[in-house]
Queue: 4 jobs
Job 1
Amino acid sequence: MNVSRRAAIFFLLIGSLAGNTASANDDLMIVGAPVSNGMYDPSLVALTEKNLWLSYSAVQPLPDGWPPMISSRLARSDDGGLSWWDIRAVAPAARQALPPPHDKLKAVWANEVSRLFHVPTAPKAMQWQILYHRYLSVWPAGMPEAMRLFDHGWIELRQAGQPEGPWSEPRKLFAGGLYNPVNNNNLGAPEQRLDKLFPQQLGRCLAFTEPGVLVRGDIVYLALKCAAGKDSSIEMLSCDLDYKTCQPVGRLLTNADAGRLGDYASWSAPELFEKNNKTYLLVTPTTEPHEEYRGCMLFELESLNPARLSAKEPLWRTQFPEGAIGGACAFHPASATGLLVSRFQTAPPFFHIQATGQALAP
């Protein structure tokens, strides 16, 4: 999540560890979560009516001069989302020593904006999957905060037969135009350089991030943020179950759409879900100059392939206090949490996931 240190502090209701977490506007509490600086970027999967799983970004500070450790972790609920327990890190952050002349820099591999999903038609060992953005973060001396080096980053995939694990070794799945080939010594080259494979549709995309996922039979649909400066967009891909063949199937939103709907510059954090045989896109508008999250909007999809929205206007949007920063929302009709919203405040812990209790879509 991109955040500004000048953000206004807004009031957050803190839920009790011992109580239910589904009350409206409570912070989501995950028992055992190692999140001294907070958590954000939730995604929800329902295996049964009561058995739910959640992936989220956990933020742990390091000593001064180090970037934060951001890991993708899993939590489990056995009561439909009323209470949650941390289970494990699927993609833990890790410190990275750099070669000269950069060896004085303190660097960390971050793994964030994850999407957990279940693919019942895949082979047993691949039925649980998680996508996340892995990138290098450094903190140069004298800088007010860490720098995220997206030229040293890609979308990574892990798979498992059950969410408790064991999880597979990572696959370096997607990268964009910024990708630095020096990283080929780490997991090899990207399996798909989407900017080169599809230059007409995706050639302008410098990086891909914040995957949203919807599984239909033997097809995995991915909504990705194409980071391309003033020409950024939300793009949809259609992939086979092993991601050997992926094709762009449509552009859902552009920066022009963001500006048309308000004082927004772009979009982030696309999330796909289904309810009552309809498909929806939950997405976060952002503002300049720091791509700050400004709530969430809900759109209905007319079709997945070609990817097309039913209307240019959102069905619904969050109402945030002036100056508040938050978004990266998640929703599953089976979860008692209702809409989950990532929120930021200027005092630690900086990151929160708010369980609104709000149902979305008819």
Note: The chain has a mean pLDDT of 91.
Job 2
Amino acid sequence: MILSCTSVDKLVSTIKTAISKEKPDCFIAIPSNCSLDLDNFRAQLKAEDISFVGAIYPFVFDQDDAYDDKILVKFYKFAHPPIFFDENCKGSSDLKILENDASNSLLLLSHATHPYLSNFLVDLFKKFGASKKVAGGCTIFEENKFGGNLFDADQIYNNYIVLIPLISKMQISLYHGWKEISGPYIVTKANGQTVEHLNWESANQVFAGAFPDLVGDDYNFSDLLNLAREFPFGMYKELGECIIRDPIQFTEKGITFLTEIPENTVLFILQGAKKSLFSASFKAVKESIDLDAKIEDHLIFNCTARKITLEEDYKEELKNMSEVSLGNMIEGVYGYGEIGTNPFGFLEINNRSCLSISYYK
């Protein structure tokens, strides 16, 4: 449910009233610009013995609009307390607790630029394969007044990952709708999150050269970053849509992305159009709710970049998703990366995508 940031007393009272025996635990998403007194909020939830874990996002949304002054609360049953991992992923041995527990799925929330997120997903896949579906999204990564990206009753965590083990099962669907307009380009030199060479040439020059009518010879790094907001990169995937990667910085060294791009990766430059973006989110919601089982709840992780690209038309996307939801409430967050198990069981980090999750028994 979406709640206005009224007094902390009223918020906590509303949440306490809504809790059921079947779903006694809470996931709470708070916009980074929300006026909520988070320390007081956490303390009162703890005093009321309410089990919760929370994350900071740019916006939350429902079928009507996106909000930076309201919070999202979803109710689940945790198999056991969530597991937190710091920026070095210390505590990864705690994954053993998931091997024989009662959880059927894992909700994963991560700082968008966590240095070990990619490796962490590989470890998860090696340990569980397709036996536990995993889905979630990346939180705020900029500095914010709350001082972190995740929180629970004990503290506010910065640059952390959390795994929330759920009793419910998941049906996951993810699409983005961006189309290839240039490429292919081979990553011939990379260093972590920075691609230095494409096709054995400067990555910056290759990207600029793809737009001779938009970029002059005297371009600067700011010009390229602004262009990349409209034309992101996509990693080639043999089956299905490519995996989008968002540049976050252009420097003399090359193009830095939110997540690591290995050498020999094949990239394309992409462009999004309103029609194809709408079609992708519509398809994601439709496929996630296409179940014989009764849906208990529904949660969407949508990319902030989609909202920016669509401008005021983002409300139309929310409306379209609502129309195909078969009466299920459209609620979710706008974040900086969408994480999910693909149809072949592999875990992927995506950008500029719409991830739709349905929960069922």
Note: The CA atoms of residues 44 and 159 lie 25 Å apart.
Job 3
Amino acid sequence: MGLQRWGKIPETIFVSQWVARGVPRLLASYPQKDLDPNLIIDIFGLILREEEEPREGFYIVEYPEEAAFSRQYAHRNFVCYFSGMELRQLVGLILEKGEDPEPYRGALVRVALRLFRRGEIPTAEEEWEEIWSQILAYTDMPIELRIADIFRDFEARMILSIMVEEGVLTLDELIRKAREKISYPITRDLLISYVYVLSALGILEVRFDEKALIERVYLISDVVFYRKKPQKFDEIIKKFPSVKEIYIQYVSDYIATWEADAEKIPELLSNSEIYPLIQKFRQEGAIEESRLSPSDRAIAERLKEENILVKIDNTYVMLVDPAYKLLFPKWTIAKLVEKAKEDTTMRDLLKNWLNVLKEAYLRRR
């Protein structure tokens, strides 16, 4: 896959490492491979203007007018994500002049998460091209795919389940609880990266509490993956009346198993080969086998095995639509309201959380 297929794109992705008593190191950059390591020192310098050492999370810094590389980079944005002090890695994107950094936040942290999980810096050209393509594709990816993509991972599902139970936690409390529930060794930095992916998606929000000098995590939305009635269902049963009985029986069985089944939905929705065909069935409801390419027929057969489609004669018909829904966390709020009746500290946390929720939902309007 050649890079020329993309339109306007960032200049370069880089991976660097913070050295507490030394000079930050450039570990890799792509597609510009001869990036000056001194530029990375400048970026860390901009990040450290307000802090003695970098904290985990996002940084968007603008290169100043009067610095060593101002001729090339003045007023250009650098979108960066710092892993934390276990891995001490900074993954950053150098944007072209005038590019908005916001669309790249989710893409950057998702790629950073993959790099951290990998445990080593890629060396092959093909690996870097795949990473670069992921960044570019992520910015155009529908929110449905982005959410499905992260919830393929057990760690993301565990973090959300803890937050649905608690509503508000310090970042340290959340990481401790997640580590207790995950049966295999996992670094703090990796778990924190999941928190920031979920934050970029608007599911959680991380804020620094200046009074307590700690970072708190707030639940913004619960997420449910489920199978729903297709939008074209009425048209489908007019043309294929037998589908109605099949659907009624399926729903009767599905109600008892939907929670266990929910883990399958992210795998289907986040698959770049399957998703376009799901979209096609959403639009048309039913498609004759003869209209599908050999590769699409193979995908349709898989969707049939997953009980998303049924086959009536020579036509594939959508039985259920794999979907997700963001839910306002009213049940979690109700639990905290009960706790706050006896606990004044909890009252303050609840008040702060409700303000954060109000701001988050106003931004969505």
Note: The longest strand covers residues 222-228.
Job 4
Amino acid sequence: MKIEFVYGPFSSNSKKFDFKNLYNNQSGLTGSEFSCVKFAEAMVKRGHDVSLYIPLLEDVAEWNGVKLFDLSKFYNARIPPDVFYSWNEPDILRYTPSTSLRMVNQQLNDFMYCENNFDNFVDIYTSPSAAHLEYISKFTPNKNKWAVIHNCIDPNMFNLDVKKQEGSVVYASSADRGLHLLLQEWKKIKKEVSFANLSIYYNFDSWFNSLNHIDVNNSSVEIGVREFKNRANYIAYTLNELKNLDVTHYKSVSKNDLYKKMSESVLMAYPCSTVRYTEGFSVSLMESCYSMATVASKQDALGDIYKNSGIPMINTPTTQHMDEFTNYCVKMLTDKVFREETMEKSKAFALNYTFKKESENLEKLMLKNLKG
């Protein structure tokens, strides 16, 4: 098949991708960005002719067999592919020929950013999980257009032969999804585990800046936005307060640097608590299942996806079960037998979610729905 992947302007949000240095660029890669480029690569390995239209930092003709084109060239005249596969953005398919199979990989949780009648230009939507599909498909007219193509990990990017650094804890997700709760509990964790240290890997400066003008006492501001502002204020204050308790915020880091840290660290602590439905898969959580011990919550789709992973997961509302979360974190940091038992289970679980395996399902889905 000839397949064209598309990572559009809404998803990229002015970011340009450095394919000469993709895994070492300090801007890093989100789960959505990573899934797009890795599925493109995986489909090349399955023998297909694959192009990727994406904002490029520099002109690069090819990456791991994937032909690269700047997004600005997407509407240039050419022979149409068998399949268009757009990440998150149905609107970019509006002016593509209906003779091609037109697919959208929907990583987001609504379609409010789309123009009217966007569904008319999509043949198949894919969702990263069954639970996410149940939620997101309600926003389109026909649930039969939907299928699950899971997000995945690449085990080859980790080095699990390195020695774990005892006491090392990682948080590697958006700040709005539960960082405030982990920071709230850190003094308790540190009291029980004096050698514990917390590394936070996510650049949320733009999130902070977007909330600067919000007045939390203004009732005309949507309550969810006010909650975001409260969380941002708490995180900013507490990060400064906890500097002397071995808490470090690294902001943006390269994908390789993050994988190195995850390979070396003991625990991913993710007390996910969202203001609205947000977490449809969590690539970082699946990566931690493979590479380290993990404690999480059952927020949004997570309880369904990770129910057989072997990791301790607290019930929701997350805020009502934080004592349990903290106790699990302490146990993971201090009980090596318990930790290794859960890691063995979660690693085996995560190996069910590799690009090599899931690209076969993607190929079958495309072949089944090809036109002409």
Note: DSSP finds twelve helices and 14 strands in the chain.
